[in-house]
Amino acid sequence: MPEGDTVWQAAKRLRDALAGQALTRSDFRVPKYATVDLTGRRVLDTISRGKHLLTRFEGGLTLHTHLRMEGAWKVFGAGERWRGGPAYQIRLILGTADRTAVGYRLPVLELLRTTEEEQVVGHLGPDLLGPDWDPERARANLLADPGRQLGEALLDQRNLAGIGNVYKSELCFLLGVTPWLPVGALPADRLEKLPALAQRLLETNRERPVRQTTGLHRYDLFVYGRAPRPCLRCRTPVRVADQGDGSQDRPTYWCPTCQAGPAPGPGAPQRWRDRYPRRTA
Q1: Residue 167: helix, strand or coil by DSSP?
Q2: 73-131 pLDDT, tens per residue?
């Protein structure tokens, strides 16, 4: 699932392409909205809210989309060949005189009144890249369930909105704790800096084409996707295992030397030996 910075970039692409212009094409390719036509309506704005996208139109309408794992918004110029997938994967086309936005494989697509936006995003915690960012509230949300594993708490968008699997793993590495550590066991000084660190990572990367957390020229990420290559700090092989409630397990990366705290139990899938070829750093 895209991280908050990726969704912010998608919102910017849509805003730059459509905002302030009247639609010359509106093509909904989902049964529920097959008869809807937004042609002639002016696009007011597109904003990101955590991992949600809200595109607002004159007349008080909002298009709510969520990319989840497979969805994507692509923007093309006049006459440009569309590249994003086969035509049958297109769920929505919004066009102006010179730009066309094409939504591929959108699992969430709904029209609602702009006044009703809170119905779809009101449950979210403070947005790491939004005007409502509030580090104190984010910290309080995390501490509301001190026994919960830190990795799971970071992914819960009700606590703070925008962190996905990549930043979960990278944040835990930078904090020096495993994602299985209970939130309440996180040392006070690290809990204090966690929200600001998370926000800084996403804010630094929202304008970048390639996400970077290390500050190193050759390596973009410390642990995510690196199993079983050596840790960039201590050379211990990075590991990966599933973390979740069983219904939504997600691969979680960590360094067993640099990160203190519990590791997955003996029955948890330790997938790094089977799924990832051994490579040098």
Answers
A1: helix
A2: 999 999 999 999 999 999 999 999 999 999 999 999 999 999 999 999 999 999 999 99
Q: Are 84 and 57 in contact (CB under 8 A)?
A: no
Q: Is the dihedral of CA 253, 257, 261, 264 positive or negative?
A: positive
CATH of domain 4-121: 3.20.190.10
Active site residues: 2-3, 51, 250
Collapsed DSSP state (helix, strand, coil) of residue 91? strand
DSSP 278: -
Rounded CA-CA distance 154/160 in Å is 7
* pTM for the structure as a whole: 0.90
* Range(s) within the chain of domains with CATH label 1.10.8.50: 135-275
> Is the Cα torsion angle 176, 182, 188, 192 positive or negative in sign?
positive
Q: At what angle do helices 188-205 and 165-175 cross, to 10 degrees?
A: 140
- Show Cβ contacts of residue 31 under 8 Å, excluding neighbours closer than 6 positions: none
Asked if residues 48 and 117 have their Cβ atoms less than 8 Å apart, the reply is: no
Q: Can you tell me the distance from the alpha carbon of 71 to that of 65, in angstroms, rounded to the nearest whole number?
A: 9
Nearest to 273 by CA among 232, 222, 237: 237
